[in-house]
Amino acid sequence: FFRRSLLASFGVFAAQFGGGTVAFLWPNLKGGFGSVINAGKLEDIKAAIEGNGEPYYYGAGRFYIVTYDGKPTPDADYAAEGVAAQGIMPLYQRCVHLGCRVPFCKQSQWFECPCHGSKYNTAGEYKLGPAPRGLDRFSIEITDAGDVMVDTSRIILGPPRGVDTLGKPQAGPFCVAPG
Questions:
Q1: Under 8 Å between Cβ of 161 and 133
Q2: What is the Cα–Cα distance from 126 to 137, expressed in whole angstroms?
Q3: Alpha carbon distance 112, 97 (integer Å)
Q4: Closest CA to 65 of 86, 96, 81
Q5: Which one-letter DSSP state was computed for residue 60?
Q6: 14 CB contacts (<8 Å, ≥6 apart)?
Q7: Could you tell me which of 22, 114, 118, 131 has the fewest CB atoms within 10 Å of its CB?
Q8: Structural domain boundaries of the chain?
């Protein structure tokens, strides 16, 4: 009796553990990170950026949307790469140095990594610190209806060090000490 009940309880435990593991590992591809995300209407996003004076953050997709009016260079033609469209560009929130979330600093008008002090301009281009390149990007598409579609299923590597399509210095003091 005890042997069968022990085996039965072990079987129930294994089934619960297996079911929980499968549920945890099963990909969630319904509008979250790792899929194509509708970030909103183009005019609403641009209005939010202008009204707040900082990039539009979309937490579920783990990206910022920034306004972009830079000039293409041989190393960085963002519109041709499919990462900029109609004056906006999505940037992955993760620092390319060690993976920390990189917040935007209103004082300097740059992205500043709190972990090791890497700095990136508003186009996500490397400026200071230990990061090996600029912030990574996602491809973007604006639909005919004005919806901003960001494809987070494929990360596009950021531009190499030295790329500066904006030509703008920091606007004020840093929020994080230089690394």
A1: yes
A2: 13
A3: 12
A4: 86
A5: G
A6: none
A7: 22
A8: 36-156
Superfamily of domain 36-156: Rieske [2Fe-2S] iron-sulphur domain (2.102.10.10)
User: Can you give the pLDDT at residue 30?
Assistant: 59
* Sites in the chain below the pLDDT cut of 50: none
Give residue 31's pLDDT: 61
Q: Residue 112: which residues within 8 A CB-CB, separation 6 or more? A: 102, 103, 104, 105, 118, 119, 120, 174, 175, 176
Joined together, the tokens standing for residue 28 give 């969630």
C-alpha count within 13 angstroms, C-beta hemisphere, residue 81: 21
Q: What is the pLDDT of residue 21?
A: 85
- Helices then strands, each counted (H, E), the chain: 3, 10
Query: At which residue do the structure tokens 């620092």 appear?
Result: 95
Q: How does pLDDT run across 40-87, given as a tens digit for each residue?
A: 999 999 999 999 999 999 998 999 999 998 888 888 888 888 888 899
Query: Distance between CA 130 and CA 92 in Å, rounded?
Result: 18
For tokens 């604006």, what's the residue?
Answer: 142
SS3 content of the chain, % helix, strand, coil (to 5): 25, 30, 45
